[in-house]
Amino acid sequence: MSVPTAMKTETFFTIEMPYRERMEIRRTVFSGGGGPRLSVVAGIHGDELEGLYVCHRLAAWLDELQRTSPGGLLGSIELYPAVNTLGLDTLTRGLPVFDTDLNRAFPGSAGGPLPERLAAALMTALTGSALVVDVHASNIYLREIPQVRINQEFDDLLVPIARRMNLDLIWLHGAATVLETTLAHSLNSCGTPCLVAEMGVGMRITPEYCDQLVAGILTVCRDLGVLASDVSVPETTHTPFIADDSNVHYLNAQTSGMFIPAASHWTDVRRGELLGTIVSPLRGDILSEVRAPVDGILFTLREYPLVYEGSLMARVMARKGGAPA
Ligand SMILES: [Zn+2]
Q: Residue 19 has what pLDDT?
């Protein structure tokens, strides 16, 4: 017998502030029955807003499901849209006052300073989820296509799920580049699968990317039995390329200056093609050029114009075998 969906917003972490207020960090829980739980986390970095909109779109979809197909939710979906509230309030990437990147504070400690306490509370809340999706935007400097980043240590488990997420790229990272103090690494190490989605640009929302990820998350919810198999979810139309250290090429600025792009983000480029120029605000000349090193896909492009010698300008992914993986 089906159970109608219940929705509630609750506090999962609270701490007394130095003056009158308490800080309360909240989640929204949609629960339909005793089935598996999927959790979506966003706003660990206070300058990344794409995931907040993903949570809004999921909540709107689940509200609609409640009306059209009560009983369609077999498990529960938890939304944690704004984990680093102090950072979001002040347009700060890290946790203000503590000058800490919250995504370097995991697994945290219940008796530690604020960043550690918050990390520990989030770990406790998320542990046992069938899947956690940690949504990041890029920073304000670079624009990224919708992608999932996976540590090769956990690729056997995570790549098959990631292929269902309706994203355009699965980027496998070698063990040497892994940061062990991230939420994803801490959860995966404890047996709760966690995928890191990254897309768009900092301080902005890219609605089409967010809707693309929402369709993927709902498809995975159905795969996992969080949603009933007969629930219709938005269509998924994207197939990811696979990238790793062997086919991703980094382009760094040869000179400092102002970057003026000549190519569009997320397009095919040919070896030697002009991607942009770096010009001087003081003089009329072009200081240096950024050109594609290989035939491939321009999947990262500089968004913020002021650059220093050595700044990352673009990443180009050479196709493996020429077809989607
Ligand atoms: Zn982030």
A: 87
